[in-house]
Design a protein that fits this description.
single chain, 184 residues, alpha+beta, 2 domains, 45% strand
Length: 184
């Protein structure tokens, strides 16, 4: 690698038009000017943000959910996750989503990281948590009406094997569990 300085450029938004406005996402088309003067277009998916949770039982099993994901065209094994409500604190959302999807409450939620899922075209920032001290919720919150989520638990070794074999293909799950292992 050379010693030359790297210049970080920025883009100036010249025009924005809304292409689509939905329940979960909004899509806009921006006309931007690059630092060298070039004019180009950027398609941006706007998203409120989300949380994901790595629930670890006392015997070191990861509680996961299996659900059909239309965009992937198949059932995926993932950690529990959900979209933030407008203005919702991620800590509150993580506790709610854990209970809704698994019927569990955590004695302790530890923030692991926050990361953009696809910063090339999306504003979605996901907040990842480790959930420990799990107990069955007294009054389980209902899953969202359009969700069909089923829980499964796997050992840490099983999880790693499933990642290697391609049985787990969800990036937030892989990144979050690998990060959670550094806390255990």
């Amino acid at each position: 690698m050379s010693d030359e300085k790297r210049v970080v450029s920025c883009e100036t938004v010249l025009e924005t038009s809304e292409i689509y406005s939905g329940k979960v996402i909004h899509v806009r088309l921006n006309t931007v000017q690059l630092s060298d003067g070039m004019i180009t277009k950027r398609e941006i998916v706007e998203h409120r943000g989300a949380v994901c949770i790595v629930p670890i039982t006392e015997d070191r099993r990861i509680v996961m959910v299996r659900q059909f994901r239309l965009a992937a065209g198949k059932n995926l094994l993932e950690i529990p996750a959900g979209t933030l409500e407008q203005g919702e604190n991620p800590d509150v959302c993580a506790a709610r989503e854990l209970e809704e999807e698994t019927g569990l409450k955590a004695a302790k939620l530890t923030a692991l990281f926050s990361a953009y899922l696809a910063p090339g075209y999306s504003t979605e920032l996901i907040h990842s948590y480790l959930a420990t001290g799990l107990a069955t919720a007294e009054n389980k919150l209902s899953q969202d009406a359009d969700e069909r989520v089923f829980t499964e638990s796997v050992s840490i070794d099983e999880f790693l094997d499933k990642v290697k074999s391609g049985d787990i293909q969800d990036c937030k799950s892989i990144a979050s569990v690998l990060t959670a292992l550094t806390y255990l």
